Amino acid sequence: MVLSRFWLAIFISSILYVVVSLMTSNTYSLDFVLNGKKDDPVLISEKFLQDLPISLQDSINAADNFSYVVNKNTADADTTYVFKNKTVKIYSGVQKSDGLLPTAKSTLLDLILPLIAYLAFFCGLMQLLIDSGASEKLARLLSPAFVKVFPSVPKGHESISYMTLNFAANFLGLDSAATPFGLKAMQSLQEINPHKDKASDAQIMFMCLHAAGLTLIPTSIIGYRAAENAANPADVMLPCIITSFIGTIAAFILVGIRQRVNFKSASLVIVLMSMIAAIIGLLFYINNLDLVAKNAFTNNLSGLMLIAIIAFTLIYAWMNEKKFVALETTVFDSFVTGANSGIKTGVMIFPYVLAMLVAISFFRNSGLFEIISHGIAFVFSHLGVSKEITDSLPVAMLRPFSSGGSRGFMIDSMRTFGADSFTGRLSSIFQCSAETTFYVIAVYFGSVKIKNTRYTLGTMLLIDLICVITAIFVASWFF
Prior knowledge:
Layout: H1 2-23, H2 31-35, E1 41-48, H3 54-62, E2 67-70, E3 79-84, E4 87-94, H4 100-132, H5 134-149, H6 158-171, H7 175-191, H8 201-212, H9 219-227, H10 237-259, H11 266-287, H12 291-319, H13 321-326, H14 331-366, H15 368-382, H16 387-390, H17 393-398, H18 403-417, H19 422-432, H20 437-447, H21 456-478
Antiparallel strand pairs: 1-4, 2-3, 3-4
């Protein structure tokens, strides 16, 4: 219900704002909101050539193709005059994201179709884990810790293995693998959910831990920083790990208090201490490497782990081929069965993802997001918050809505202020220390057709806020 009302609120408020802007002449055309493409110039006016100053008329007539750019600067949004069919169209600024119709198209072609391919492959592997008995053994091994965090999940339940694989994939920055594992976990948890249209405690705990985005190797962030010529692209890795780890602990505590989890459990304490020790140990190892070795290690660890997971699954299935025979199937047919299940899941979640992304696109292009963003930055600046921090806040604000949008702001901040500036580094930490909350809720709950998400959205947004505050303190401490 909360998600539905939020979706309606941003959609309706955006529509009202663009209509009012058009009526008050603050906006010249609504075409960019409906049909525009990201980074396209925005039409702000149209005039007859003779209505322009003489100097501009001369410049336009003398220009090639009657197109004249004022203050041409590739790093800035210039004003462009284009003379065609007796009128001069004036463009200024660039579009923040694709319009409504291009977003609907790209959601299918650029997001859902690749996601379906990932789902088909990894769901095929997960079917091998199920039929070979590997998932059952993994679940039994991890049950002592998981039943403390998820008391409503029976010991040895298959969802434990799926959640483990999801957390591990996120931990290593394997986004393409994390989503299929997470969707399979949600579907497995839905089987033991007594109220099929309402999120269970276990599903909420899983979603909030997933939202915290505990990351060990922020591969993509390091890659973007390297592309922007950062002196040490991996220098934000430790702040990213600390921020996401604190976010994960906060998620566990916030949800655990509400669900009355026993925090004094010995097995739970052992698991937490083991995780902390493993992270500290790996950080010490990485910090002792030189720059070349550090980059090679961070670039290859995630890929090697993914290959190891695939190899283990296939080899274990081959070694336990008798179990497939007992199920009257083969290893290959089992993989195909799982892949078919992944395709069906991808088709099922498409409407949920489409509805959310189109609303976010309209919200961004309407101009409301910029107004809210500038307003918050203005308030923070008058509270004594440094400009270096307020300049990076758009990344933090957009991250719960759109990974691509916040990534664009992050890259822009590095190009504007420098990859090694405080703003550039803080933007990178914001980008890797939280999750795209609204997208994740739409995908994960949509995959099991849950309508009542209970307190999930509010908790996940609070976790996002904690990650933002933590990122600011950690960045200030390191840089």
